[in-house]
Every structure is written in C-alpha cells, then in structure tokens.
Input
Amino acid sequence: MIRNVHERLVNASPERVGQLLDSLAGDNDMVWPRDAWPPMKLSNGLAVGSIGGHGAIRYSVESYTPGRKVVFRFADNMGIVGTHTFATEPVDTVTTMVTHELIGTTTGAMKLVWPLFIRWLHDALIEDALDNVEGIAANDGKIGRTYPFGVRHLRSIAGPSAATQSRPVRRVGNATALGLASAGAIHAAWGLGMRWPGTDATSLARKVVGSSIFPSSRDCFAVAGLLGIASSLVVARTRPKSRIAKIAPDPIAGLGVGVLGSVLAARGVLGFVGSATNLLHTTPEFRRLNLVIYSPLCIALAIGAFAVNGNKLSNR
Output
C-alpha cells in the first residue's frame, strides 16, 4: 500500500492558489513543472473523464472541484491501483495549504519499480510543482531546485533519450543493438551445435569460457534470450515510436538499458583485470581473446548503452 503525501503552506489567499490549481494541464499551466519534466496533458482539460497523463504515466480525471481539488485515477495498466490528488485548503484569508496525495496499491513489476525508481522521481516532480505554486502565488516567480545526484541519474534514465535528438547517438544506439543481437545469435548457434571458433566442444570452451567444459544448450539459449531482450531495450530507448517501445516504454526501457550498461562495464573492466592477472585461472586461449576481443567489446557496448541513455534535460 502506498500513501505518499506532499504538503506546502503557501502565503497567498485561497482564491489566488485556487486559480493556479485551475490552470493545471492547460495552455497556461502554472503548477506543473513542464520546463523540467514531461508535461501533463489531458484530452479535455480538468473535466471529469478527461484522459491523459505525463510521460509514460497515464491517468484520467475522476473528480474536480474548481479551485479546491482534482482527483486523478491511474489507468488500469499502470501497475498502481489508486489515485493521485491535488488539493487546496484555506488556513486563513492569506494562507493556504496545498497538498498532493498519492494513494494506491502496486501490482506486477511496479511492486519493484515504484520503491526503486518511480517514487524518487515522483517526489522530486511534486516538490517542483509545489515550488511553482509557492513562488508564483506568493512572490510572482519560481523557486529553483537542485536535484540530488540519485534523482539526476534517474531523470537521465526516465527522460527523453539523447538518441531521439542526435543522429550520431542514434547511430551508436543502432550499432549497440546490432552488436547485442549478433552476440545473441552466436550464443543461439552454439546452443544448436555450432563449434566455431573452436573445432569441438572442448576447444570452443577453452576459447570462450576459459575451461574445458562447454555450457549446455539450455544455458546458451538462455544467454541468447537475455541478449535479445537487451538489444530490444536499446532499440526501444533509441526509437521511442517503434513497436518495441510500445512493449517496453520509458521508464522501463531506460532502467533496463541503464542496468545493461552497468553490467557490461563491470564485465569489461573485471575481464581485463582477471585476464591480465589470471586471478580466475582460465585457459591461455581465453585470456588472450578476453584481452583483445571480449572485454573491449563489453566496454564498447557499455559506452553505447550509456550514450543512448543520456539526455538533454536540465539538471537544475
């Protein structure tokens, strides 16, 4: 069960703060921090039944009391069964309490994604919105915020990929996806019985595993599947309007590519160290190929993944 509450005491009249609330999702939205986050868009403004959301987060207007309260209900496929609400409460004639409350139950993958990822972005976004209300209502200006490092990193994953804005980075994304898919195809071929670059199972194992025992076909197919998924996530991140992106939209694609880049970078660096020092006691054939091909390839793919996951959003 989630109950996430943000409150802000604003030195402005309830009428003034109510005017700001009524601008939400409109052409002159003075609440939502759309200069730094995906804008809130609704099909029919703040009208009951209006459908929309911000970024990949989808919801509809469940109820609306002008100047006082608007309740949004999350879409059925969002992984959160519940609502999020903006409300104003008069304290006196010149002071108003502004509240945002998210209440719901997580389902499926959101049980993991919410506490690890979404929750921190949500908190930063809502605090930005309350800054806007406080700054505009009380001081006729906005209050700037500085995001913690963790939130800045998560924003880079959840935000628009630089690959959607930069042709060179798009090319890097395409090459990274192709490299991952090719590696997956080779593993699948090994699972089907191919023994290149060796001549039999033992010589192949000595070159690609570092021992004399080659993994089972099931293991080869499992790795091929994981590499295929990784390639698809890079495509989804690079081409957000593709069919693959509809299956794995942001922030899922961004989170997956971020994890992929970290894993590949670790494999590349540790591979260099392990082969250079022979800490893992692998075969000479594997150590040579690992230093020349395997580890450099992992690092190159990691750089590609990190490049695709970059963005040009402001990190105020």
Remarks:
- The beta strands are 2-10, 40-42, 51-54, 57-65, 69-74, 80-92, 95-106.
- The CA atoms of residues 106 and 114 lie 8 Å apart.
- The longest strand covers residues 80-92.
- DSSP finds nine helices and seven strands in the chain.
